[in-house]
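Two proteins, back to back. First:
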Amino acid sequence: MTFPKLLLITLFLSLQTLFIASQILTSSSNSSSSICKTTPDPKFCKSVFPQTSQGDVRDYGRFSLRKSLTQSRKFTRTIDKYLKRNKGLLSHSAVGALQDCRDLASLTTDYLTTSFETVNVTASSKTLSFSRADDIQTLIIKFY
């Protein structure tokens, strides 16, 4: 299944964009083009963010997390629908593999939800403690 790999790569690059950019850029207003220059894949980054908007790293981070969360939920629903429609036609091992995939997608959704909530809590104070940022970055690295 290449779709789960594509989803994980998309999520990883989106979240990596947030952390790399936050380490390099200040909180001043920036275009997506200037933020994307600091990422491992600027072309992909530019294709994800709206080109017309201005914002700081936190704004782009929230956008990235929100988009990743939406895709993760869609992916989980797609697996659920496929299992419901085809469960009788699939082998036991195929059903098990799809259920494992759904469980991993659900864990991804839970993790992204927690990350999004953390970023939103810090939106009012505009700061994220070093220890909390380190915890989140460690989770991302271990997750991927």
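And the second protein:
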Amino acid sequence: MAEIIDGKDVAASVIEAVKAAAFDLERTHGVKTGFAVVIVGDDPASHTYDGAKSRMAKECGFASIQHTLPAKTTQEELAALIQSLNQDPSIHGILVQLPLPRPLKSDPIIQLILPEKDVDGLHVVNGGKLATGDLETGLVSCTPDGAMVFVRRMHGDDLSGLNAVVIGRSNLFGKPMAQRLLDANAAVTMAHSRRTCPERAAPPSAVLRWSRRALDQAGCDGDRCRHQSD
């Protein structure tokens, strides 16, 4: 029998915990959590995502600031803004909405963010800490962290003896998701656009499963997966 997990219920509990922590930090230390979102260009999807992030930050009691820059912004101008946010003691987290419009290069910008303010967990320092199991001082992308909440609710903290399949190998989700599962003692299979379709590669006891529709959306057709970026 399938087990239904209420995502809204889980999200509500996480939001309440973050609200309480933010309130306690401000009450006991006089520090209001500062969150800066940087968006370049006028891509509608990016603005939708950023709007949702900013609203959620405010709901959690953060001081949320959005920097909206024109598409013609230069690499140097964007880098200068990141450096300014790094030096701003009222800002504790920085998020740059990706992808950046061409010809801007995202990686040099991401690596400019102070690791302790890199809330997407994309800085090489945070990636290295995740790879070595340092979850105390390293920052991890919220998507794999959120997925682990569901996995633990279904299977507990120790995934010994279980197989997990991760679809995709992006730095934002696939790679950190695989590492989180490995840290919980699961045996992990990575399925991506350059390998046999995950429907045939997955072991029968996989922690993460999918529907035929999900595979179609992922670009799987027959024995191979159609070309995808991940």
